[in-house]
Amino acid sequence: MNRTILHVVTNVSHFGNPKHKTGLWLSELTHAYEIFAAHGFKQKIVSPAGGKSSLEPRSLRWPFLDSSVRSWLNDPSKMALLDNTLSPEQLDSSEYDAIYFTGGHAVMWDFPDSIGLQQITRDIYERGGIVSSVCHGYCGLLNTCLSNGEHLVKARRITGFSWAEEVLAGVSREMPYNAQQEMQKRGARYEKAVLPFMPNVLVDGLLVTGQNPFSAKLTAKQVVSLLKP
Question: Most buried among 30, 40, 49, 139, using CB within 10 Å?
Answer without folding.
Answer: 139
